[in-house]
Write the C-alpha cells for this entry.
Amino acid sequence: MVSKCVVFITLWLITTTPLANACPFRPLGGVLEPIRVEVLGSSGLTGVFYDLDGNGQADRALVFPPDLSRANGLTYWPLIYFEGLNEEGHAEEVWIDRGGDGECIDIYLYWKRTVRY
C-alpha cells in the first residue's frame, strides 16, 4: 500500500515541475522586424509587436523591462510573451519568464483564454 506521504510528494512534484513542452517558442530576435514598438506607461516596460502571418496585424507581443546598460535600453530576453493576438489585441496565451534569461525551464504559461468571444 502506498503511503500518504509518497502520494503527497508525487502530487507536489507533478504540480511544481514545469512541463517538458512549457516553452513552445523562442524570442524572434533578428528573424522578423517588429511592426510596432511602444513604451507601456511610465514603468519603462516596452512592448514589441510582431506580425507572424503577414496580414499586417500584430500576432505576438513581447514585453521587455528596461536595461540602461544596453545600447537599446532593453534586456535581451522578454519578461512577458503575449501569443495569438486577435483584432482587438487580446492574447490567446500569456507566458511569463520568471528567470528573465530566456531559458525554457523558467517560462510558464500564466494565462490561457478558454472562452471565445
